[in-house]
Amino acid sequence: MFEKILIANRGEIALRIHRACREMGIHTVAVHSTADADAMHVRLADESVCIGAAPSKDSYLNIPAILTAANITNADAIHPGVGFLSENAHFADMVSEHGITFIGPSAEHMRLMGDKISAKAKIKELGLPVVPGTDEAITDIDEALVTAKSIGYPVLVKASGGGGGKGMKVARSSEGLRSAISLAKAEAKAHFGNDEVYLEKFLSNPRHIEIQILADQHGNVVHLAERDCSLQRRHQKVLEEAPSPALNAATRDKIGAKVVKAIRKLGYYGVGTIEFLYENGKFYFIEMNTRLQVEHPITEMISGIDLVREQIRVAAGAKLDLVQKKLQFSGHAIECRINAESPETFIPSPGRITDYHAPGGLDVRVDSGLYSGYEVPSHYDSMIAKLIVRGRSRNECLMRLRRALEEFVIGGIETTIPLHQRLITEPDFINGDYDIHWLENLLGI
Ligand code: ADP
User: Fold this and answer.
1) Distances from the Cα of 67 to the Cα of 23, 37, 61, 96, angstroms
2) φ, ψ for residue 21 (rounded to 5)?
């Protein structure tokens, strides 16, 4: 097992990883930008190294600085967390070249799944259903017009290198397709440095349902059921729940078994998420994330399994000691992503936290690096806390969530707590009756 892990991330996820390491008796190294010198992950880690200025490109994306920090502290592994370098195959290669273990899958699998076109092709070959669309990047507008006609409008233009809902444009007609392609290409170029785009059927009322998998380097693969992440704004998840109100046990077992079979054939190891859209009883693969997900705690709440611990163990070469048949998913869990933003306009609201009180009690978990007096920097993602609640039933979970949201005090800045309070009282949400467009319709976007 590793003796010392460098955590190449910040905020709540850095803290989450630190916690798993400490419980495994592993020492931690925090890296941080100048803006994060007072952050909680830096305070709690055994050692810390400042790796650069506030902008991410100078610090959390600065590969030479991170590798130097690992070298001088003698870290034997690096955990990339989520976002930043977590899906960067070049970084994984560089880490290995320096004789350090990258806590994640092989760089080869990261590369394959990081390109959505090759990912879809591979997943199709492995026998899982994918959203109908083009198998290759669009090179010619006339060809795209022919393909779109055969798929049927509306179609979605998506970036092959996409992530975070960027580089995605809907086209409802042939006239709209031309501009959708050029807009998506421009956005993809700006965000991912790769302007390859492809076409997909735009599904009108699907749910976003994803399957969590866990695999070791010895061919053992299990799934840890699904998460429903249909509550989204601008293709970004806002609230997630497990299990999905839309699946029954038989459907779960069936899709879970198919996914496990495909992942085993792929020879993949580490944690991973296979994302599907689910419409009219059918699953359609959209992408695979080769890293930990922000919403992983809801799976932990219903399975009792520490995903970060398992991720570290399999990276160290250990065998999974989990057997599918023995895994039990119990109760219902919901996560609210709390952002430093106006709950109405979604304009970021960084600044000093004047008061802080986190909710507690049975089955209430808060993943956050906040504390009273902390200054939320303006340079990074606006998510500042995750509130995760479990109940024996969905109803109990909702009642507990309502209570926990009431207790949560984050003073001094605006947060999206009132948005969550509003949406969990909506009858459709209470009935579990929503799709990926529901939240935007509610907000009138
Ligand atoms: P990203 O990697 O940018 O997050 P995804 O492919 O995971 O992109 O899609 C993000 C979200 O965009 C999905 O959860 C869904 O809400 C929407 N989306 C993606 N593909 C489609 C599609 N073919 N039809 C309708 N909505 C889609």
Assistant:
1) 25, 19, 11, 10
2) -60, -50
Q: Which residue, by CA, sits nearest to atom 13 of ligand 1? A: 235
Task: Show the tokens assigned to 330.
Answer: 């119990």
Instruction: Yes or no: say if 438 and 374 are a contact pair by the CB < 8 Å rule.
Output: no
To test the pocket of ligand 1, the residue of 203, 211, 232, 235 to mutate (highest count of ligand atoms within 8 Å of its CB) is 235
Catalytic position from the list 252, 291, 365, 390: 291
Q: How far apart are CA 105 and CA 381, in angstroms?
A: 25
CB contact burial 250-289 (16+ within 10 A = b; e otherwise): ebbeebbebbbebbeebebbbbbbbbbbbbeeebbbbbbb
pLDDT per residue as tens digits for the range 133-152? 988 999 999 999 999 999 99
Domains of the chain with bracketed CATH = 4-103 (3.40.50.20), 132-201 (3.30.1490.20), 207-443 (3.30.470.20)
Ligand 1 centroid vs 355 CA: distance in angstroms?
A: 37
Comparing C-alpha atoms, which of 430, 241, 246, 244 is closest to residue 337? 241
Closest CA to 258 of 111, 123, 110, 112: 123
- Give the number of the atom of ligand 1 that is nearest the alpha carbon of residue 436: 16
Chain Cα centroid distance, residue 259: 18
Strand partners, 389: 334, 364
Residue 227 catalytic?
no
Q: How far is CA 347 from the centre of its chain?
A: 22
Q: Is 216 exposed, middle or buried (0-12, 13-18, 19+ CB in 10 A)?
A: buried
In the block, tokens 């209570």 appear at 403
* CB-ligand 1 contact for 119 (6 Å cutoff): no
What tens digit of pLDDT does each residue of 366-410 get? 999 999 999 999 999 999 999 999 999 999 999 999 999 999 999
pLDDT tens track for 302-353: 999 999 999 999 999 999 999 999 999 999 999 999 999 999 999 999 999 9
Residue 94 Cβ inside 6 Å of ligand 1? The answer reads no
Structure-token pair, residue 443:
């907000």
Helix (H, G, I), strand (E, B) or coil at 94: helix
395 alpha carbon – ligand 1 mean position (Å):
28
Q: Residue 199 pLDDT > 90, yes or no?
A: yes
Which residue, 49, 46, 60, is CA-closest to 13? 60
Q: Quick check: 414 and 340 in contact, CB under 8 A?
A: yes
Cα of 165 to ligand 1 centre, how many Å? Answer: 7
- Tokens at 318, concatenated: 């250990």
Closest atom of ligand 1 to 166 CA is 3
Q: What is the DSSP code (8-state) at residue 144?
A: H
